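Example 3.2
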Amino acid sequence: MPDRLNGLGRIIDKSEEHLAADPSAKRLFSNKQVLGRFTKACLPEYHDFPLETVIRECFDDDLSFEGRKGSTPSTEFARSIGTEQILPQNDTLHLDLLFNVWVPCPVLGRRRELINIEIQNDAQNLERLIGRGIVYNSSIVCSEYGTVFRYPHYEMIEGVNTIWICPAAPSEWAGSTLCFNLNRAVSSREERLVLPKAVYDKFRLFFIGANLETGVEKRDIHGLVWTLTTQSLTVAERKKILTEVYEMDMTEALEKSVDESEEWVYNYYGRKRVEQFREEGREEGREQGRKEGRERGREEGREEEKRKNVLHLLKMRYSVKRIKTILQLSEDEILRIAKKNNVVVP
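Structure, written as tokens:
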């Protein structure tokens, strides 16, 4: 089935070369309750830590985000560090969201890793995405030369992780989380070599696949991607799933981010493009039934047809009483349509 209602993924992907998330989308994915769940689900060093610990202790605070008007800055968001990397020939690589993440460590207290969050709608060519992930991770490592590490102390390189959130993953791996990392190949002469995996496994790519059919039955990270990105949910339904299924605390800051989710379509495509999405939703809704977005589309179609009929009869100088009989509408509704369209009632 064509991906017509999966709004956020489609909107964020302006082009294959430049992924630029809308500020409101970045705000939502920067919320520690959201980011913490992706971090814990993907990075194995966090699997044994309670989710509350990851959310509370593992990210830097970003105090630039504020709640609703008049409220104080919120500490619920992770601070995103520089998302532009300079490539050879002075080209610029644009990342979506790049965060420091602190791993609790018995010896050092904690150590730093980096997480790059990329939101990608076109995930059909996984080989190409893996190549892009390698470039992204490599550029992040190179940007820290001279600060985090320098010659000859390459052992100081910090772990770099890119998490690709794919709302429209192909069926072959939708509902899966793929991980690509560095592994040590052991030969017979190296069997006695003791080398902790943390020494060399500092370069990882994760792909979280979801699609329109994912839903939230399993209450897993793929269902969370679906909940955050699908346009088949209303804002109220999205909030209900986040609080009841994923047990998120619907704070003022998180609620504001979720409220803004309906603006993503308008921010990028304007009303005309939205109407195209809704028209497609109407057509699919007639065939497949009860999806909320499609039901809204059908209702809008009926309202538009009603409006045109009323205006056509008024133009033909039909009386309100006669229009009421023909169209089975109330006088108030007829008068409302006429007033809204500046039509004089005969």
